[in-house]
């Protein structure tokens, strides 16, 4: 059904985003290690790591907000039920 598809899509997007940000973080760490002391490359790697961490925080903050909505308003977005006529 459509509600199940939407719920699965929301869960999938959160998982995929977390995995992508994790790999961006790892690649930034490798770039930092491989920079060899070059300030420009070190700064670029640090910016990449910072961006990955900010993205990861945003994804988990969105998940936490959805969880809080579930607790306070008893609306479970992860198992969304759309009423039919």
Automatic annotation (TrEMBL):
> Does the record carry Transmembrane as a key word?
yes
Print the keywords alphabetically: Membrane, Transmembrane, Transmembrane helix
Top-rank taxon: Bacteria
UniProt KW Transmembrane helix keyword:
yes
Pfam families, alphabetized: T4SS_pilin
Instruction: Enumerate the transmembrane spans.
Output: 6-30, 51-73
The entry's protein name is Integral membrane protein
């Amino acid at each position: 059904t459509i509600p199940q598809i939407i719920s699965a899509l929301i869960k999938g997007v959160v998982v995929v985003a977390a995995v992508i940000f994790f790999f961006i973080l790892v690649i930034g760490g490798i770039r930092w290690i491989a920079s060899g002391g070059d300030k420009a490359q070190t700064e670029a790697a640090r910016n990449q790591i910072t961006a990955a961490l900010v993205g990861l925080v945003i994804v988990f903050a969105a998940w936490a907000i959805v969880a809080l909505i579930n607790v306070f308003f008893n609306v479970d977005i992860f198992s969304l039920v759309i009423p039919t006529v």
